[in-house]
């Protein structure tokens, strides 16, 4: 019996429709929700992400303020632009597309974004509020994962969740969110340096793979009917594909034959990330 496929695209669209209604209500009060997206350089993947965000913002009735900067933009120039956006009352959220060029300190840039406009939840104040359970933005991808678990009525309270990946964007925030009292999971945080990874994943009721390693989680590494969330998006060379590569996750697709719930790549967690970003922008505009 194959797994129930968790359709992030469908849930993401539902959330985006809700955001559109919220945007309409805000505009009736004279507030146009606005996200400023800053892109430094011409990295193809980043340009593609920014384009999809622009489209999503437009469909949600929000303004996208697109700021494209050349690769040789200095750190001081970028900081000056962020300071200007911080002061602009018509801008509710600021997102600096990652990665930035190597001559720019990304931590310094994240720290420069005003916390009340930090819709990506990268500022230390935002991270601190999340860990302490105080009001504030939640990081988009982890929040999207939690929304998927809730949508499919997957029991979280009392469950053992194993997260594979320790990034500041997914692994660490998810671990902190899942141990909150409202979720009440027991969490094990693993990574690519964990010895005998299967020892931990075989115990898991919920596995969240976010290590950035193609097909890391195999069918013999999960227990029957576990919920498996694949956050990974990896490009793998494939001469038979039109672009010369294909996208795959951190989980072997054969896992779907053994798991109880499974997210596809693409179409699983990815659409949820953009949906939760839009919700954060709407919340920022309300405040």
In short:
It contains nine helices and eleven strands. The protein is α/β, with parallel strands linked by helices and 287 residues long.
Q: What would your notes on this structure say?
A:
This protein is globular. It has 287 residues and is an alpha/beta fold. The chain is built from nine helices and eleven strands. Helix 1 runs parallel beside helix 9 and helix 6 (140-151) packs across helix 9.
Catalogue the unreliable spans: none
Secondary-structure element sequence?
EHEHEHEHHHEHEHEEEEEH
Which strand order does the major sheet show?
A: 1-11-8-7-5-6
Q: Biggest sheet, in brief? A: 6 strands, parallel
Structure keywords:
287 residues, 9 helices, six-stranded parallel β-sheet, globular, alpha/beta, three-stranded parallel β-sheet, 38% helix
Secondary-structure map:
Elements: E1 4-5, H1 8-28, E2 34-40, H2 44-59, E3 63-69, H3 75-87, E4 93-96, H4 106-112, H5 124-132, H6 140-151, E5 160-164, H7 171-178, E6 186-190, H8 197-201, E7 206-209, E8 227-230, E9 234-237, E10 245-248, E11 261-262, H9 270-286
Parallel strand pairs: 1-11, 2-3, 2-4, 5-6, 5-7, 7-8, 8-11
Antiparallel strand pairs: 9-10
Helix pairs in contact: 1-9, 6-7, 6-9
């Amino acid at each position: 019996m194959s797994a129930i496929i968790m359709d992030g695209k469908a849930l993401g669209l539902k959330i985006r429709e809700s955001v559109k209604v919220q945007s309409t209500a805000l505009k009736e009060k004279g507030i146009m929700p606005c996200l400023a997206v800053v892109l430094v350089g011409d990295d193809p993947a980043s340009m593609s992400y920014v384009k999809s965000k622009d489209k999503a913002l437009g469909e949600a009735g929000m303004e996208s303020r697109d700021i494209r900067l050349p690769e040789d933009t200095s750190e001081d120039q970028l900081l000056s632009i962020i300071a200007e956006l911080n002061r602009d009352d018509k801008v509710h959220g600021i997102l600096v597309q990652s990665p930035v060029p190597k001559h720019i300190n990304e931590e310094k840039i994240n720290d420069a974004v005003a916390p009340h406009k930090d819709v990506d939840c990268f500022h230390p104040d935002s991270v601190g509020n999340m860990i302490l359970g105080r009001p504030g933005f939640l990081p988009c991808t982890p929040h999207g994962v939690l929304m998927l678990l809730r949508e499919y009525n997957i029991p979280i309270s009392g469950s053992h969740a194993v997260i594979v990946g320790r990034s500041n964007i997914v692994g660490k925030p998810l671990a902190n969110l899942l141990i909150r009292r409202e979720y009440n999971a027991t969490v094990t945080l693993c990574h690519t340096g964990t010895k005998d990874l299967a020892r931990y994943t075989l115990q898991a009721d919920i596995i969240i793979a976010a290590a950035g390693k193609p097909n890391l989680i195999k069918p013999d590494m999960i227990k029957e009917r576990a919920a498996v969330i694949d956050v990974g998006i990896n490009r793998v060379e494939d001469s038979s594909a039109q672009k010369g590569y294909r996208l795959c996750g951190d989980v072997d697709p054969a896992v779907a034959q053994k798991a109880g719930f499974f997210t596809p790549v693409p179409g699983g967690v990815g659409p949820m990330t953009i949906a939760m970003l839009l919700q954060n922008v709407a919340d920022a505009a309300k405040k």
